[in-house]
Amino acid sequence: MKVTTRAAGNLVGVGLAGFMVWAVAVEAAMPSWFDPDDSCPGATGVERSYFPPSATCVHGDGRVVDHISRPETVVLAIVFVLLAAVVVTGLAVLGWRLLRHDQADLGKPKPKRPALHVLGAALLGVVAGAVARAAVILASLTAGPPGGATAFVAVALWAIGVASALDRAVGPGRGGSSGSYRRGTALVLAGATALLVLVVVTWDEYAEHNTLLGPAWAIAAGAGVFALLAAVQWIRWPVRRRSARTV
Predict the structure, then answer these.
(1) Where do runs of H (alpha helix) occur along the chain?
(2) What is the value of pTM for the model shown?
(3) Burial label, 130 (beta-carbon count in 10 A; 0-12, 13-18, 19+)
(4) Which residue numbers in the chain have pLDDT < 50?
(5) Strand-pair partners of 56
(6) Tens digits of per-residue pLDDT, 25-69?
(7) Assign residue 207 a region: left if phi > 0, alpha if psi is -120 to 50, beta otherwise?
């Protein structure tokens, strides 16, 4: 199982790296955002599409000129599909591991320290939020929206790994190593979802001030959300057990 998991992780890593290279290539083929006249002389507008990758220069007399040729579009689309298959396959194997319940921890049992777990989760929320903001902006500037999305997924997977390691070290300790992976994944996915919802809801308040990195309170909110979710994981929910009748 370790080999399979390692191979799946390698697949995801190679796929994400390939996606970033693909995104850079697509963005380089697109008309310039800063000087459209240099890419489309005399055009009154530019139309872009990232999948399939295409760009056209629209002129005032109705002429439409392809900035990215059809063969380029076909090749880039095929590469995208292949990379998507690699990443999805790797994530599917990793997801299958999360559903397994037969992975027991080896060695001495780790001490359960709720305070350290909650504080560690809060710190992870701060660091992951800061890294994600910087990585997404830098990737978006160099590789467009696909690059920003790829950077976000990469940071999220890194955060899941850190959250799982934190859980194994000082977490609740239920469910063996697979339980740690499940709780780490739930912590990061739920925390990221909550923060994204907050940012989207308050988008109009800070977008008009051109703060491309998002609201300043997002990092502090990440600490609170991650800490709260980690604390919830220590709650033991009552489980109903069916009583067996003997005849």
Answers:
(1) 2-29, 36-39, 70-98, 114-170, 176-201, 203-207, 217-232
(2) 0.81
(3) middle
(4) 1, 3, 105-107, 109, 242-247
(5) 47, 66
(6) 998 888 877 777 777 777 777 888 888 888 888 887 777 777 888
(7) alpha
